[in-house]
Amino acid sequence: MDVKPRIGYVHRGIEKALENRTYIQGAFLVERVCGICSNAHQCTFMMATEEAGGIEVSEKANFIRTIVAELERIHSHLLWLGAAGLEIGFETLFMYVWRDREVVMDLLEAISGNRVNYAMNILGGVRRDISPELADKIRKGLDYLEERTNYYKKLCLEESTVRKRTEGVGVLDPVTGVKLGAVGPTIRASGVKFDVRKNDPHLKYDEADFELITWDTCDTFGRVVVRVLETIESIKIIRWCLDHMPKKGDIMPEKLIRRVPEGEAYARFEAQRGELIYYVKSNGTDKPYRVKIRTPTMANILSVAELLKGCYIADLPIALASIDPCFSCEDRITFIDIEKEKTWTWTREELRRYSREFNEKEKRW
Amino acid sequence: MGLLSKLVKWARTKSPWILHLNTGGCNACDIEILAALMPRFDVERFGIILMGSPRHADVLVCTGPITKQMKPRFRKLYEQVPDPKFVMAVGNCACTGGVFKGCYGVEGGIDTAVPVDVYVPGCPPKPEAIIDGVAKLLAKLQKS
Predict the structure, then answer these.
(1) Does the CB of B35 have a partner CB in chain A at under 8 Å?
(2) pLDDT tens-digit series, residues A158-174
(3) Residue of chain A nearest B105, judged by CA positions
(4) What is the pLDDT of residue A325?
(5) Cis amide bond preceding B84, omega within 30
(6) Closest-CA residue in chain B for A25?
(7) Which of A22, A94, A341, B8 is such that its CA lies 20 to 30 A from the CA of A335?
(8) Closest to A17 (Cβ–Cβ): which among B34, B67, B102?
(9) pLDDT of A224-240, one tens digit each?
(10) Mutate: best of B26, B51, B61, partner A, most A CBs <10 A
(11) Residue A337 pLDDT > 60, yes or no?
């Protein structure tokens, strides 16, 4: 099987639109680049702008940003684990994980007031504080999540259904991965120690106590394990932040910052899917001169084309899902059978059904 | 009303099968729609099942604004859904274009391409709001 990615179905022109929106309006627009990593986008945009304009961020605001970023990582990784369960036909796992994910959604809603687009960041700080009562609530939620995630860790490492469908599927060797610029859990599952949180720490990651997770099987199984183990590390980081967060202090500047002094900057952020990059050039007005966004899926798309080559069509859903693609438009896939000179298009659901039937027939689980 | 048409209507209101389609949105509404299908909210108790093919669906649940590249494909998908078909626009961008209004790749809301039956505003709407939209659609089906 050979693969050619065709992208652009959700191209909306956000980078251009940012040029005629103020920084404050832009903050809410970049959030909608992707709903699943909305905080990562907004936070990186703010970090880049703050660096370009030399704006100070208070200590407490940085702690709150880290907490929200890690809660978001838990929500995204659990979402992915559930979706992976669905792709391999393990629907019980899907339902279980999504039930537990509601706990972290409740926590995010308690902090920010919204379940998905949190709108937490503003130039120079964050918009909402975490009170001691709320911190206790988060700790309680984390205890439950830790117990469940440990269960999923055991399940993923030992359950033969998961192992048989994911081991040896979609192999990406580290050399090719690095050459094609893969990032995030995709490259960490190939044993490469690359995580912006460790290599170029932002927010509070330089002080927080956590481990860089890698796995050396280079396949889809590795990507499952890396994500589950990272969820446990995220819980650790949030606990550390809640314990060390200053009790007093401003979370945002007294006066809302509208104009940003001239300058340019570049910010990196370890989003859930990998390294997210924002480049901002400001020109002294209240609107950015140029914004460039490099999302992690864009970096991973070449390596996914590489790792799909030679796969079974039945393994395509899980192998494709294993990079956690952020575009919602891999919905339609065109197949070309060279021997029979036949072309047909399947939606993702139809492909998923084919995958299950094929695996049942071949007794691969 | 004949017995057969009564039966058809009963079947239609008790088991509306949906096709979930992202026409260029940010995934936020999509994960909330999935959350509505999950154990906590569980719309499957109303007989609602997510289908994979437009040919099996009664209701098109659309999220996101219509992008230029998606519009012709979306029309094609809409034509594949058997009659009578219903369209639900979930989220602010699907209703009006929302935050993306004015972006060069965006055409506007879902209603610039196809007629819409139910609008569910919110960015993203909570699963409860989506379920409310579904209930309103079912009431509409009952009347039709």
Answers:
(1) yes
(2) 888 888 778 877 788 88
(3) A12
(4) 65
(5) yes
(6) B99
(7) A94
(8) B102
(9) 888 899 999 899 899 89
(10) B26
(11) no
| Chain B residues inside the 8 Å CB shell of A38 | 26, 28
What pLDDT is recorded for position A6? 66
Q: Does A30 touch chain B (CB under 8 A)?
A: no
Answer yes or no: is the ipTM higher than 0.85: no
Low-confidence ranges of chain B (pLDDT < 70): 1, 144
- Structural domains of chain A in order of their starting residue, each with its CATH number: 14-298 (1.10.645.10)
- Whether pLDDT at A363 is above 80: no
Amino acid at A333: I
Q: Angle of helix A220-244 relative to helix A132-158, nearest 10 degrees?
A: 160
B21 touches chain A (CB under 8 A): yes
A282 close contact with B: CB closer than 8 A: no
Domains and CATH numbers, chain B: 15-143 (3.40.50.12280)
Q: What is the DSSP code (8-state) at residue A122?
A: E
**Would you tell me how many other CB atoms lie within 10 Å of the CB of residue A344?**
10
- In the prediction, which pLDDT does A331 show? 38
**DSSP structure string for chain B:** --HHHHHHHHHHHH--EEEEEESS--SHHHHHHHHHHSTTT-GGGGT-EE-SSGGG-SEEEEESPEETTTHHHHHHHHHHSPSS-EEEEESHHHHH-GGGTT-TTEEESGGGTS--SEEE-SSSPPHHHHHHHHHHHHHHHHH-
> Taking a contact as any Cβ pair under 8 Å apart, which residues of chain A between 97 and 126 contact chain B?
98-99, 102, 105, 115-117
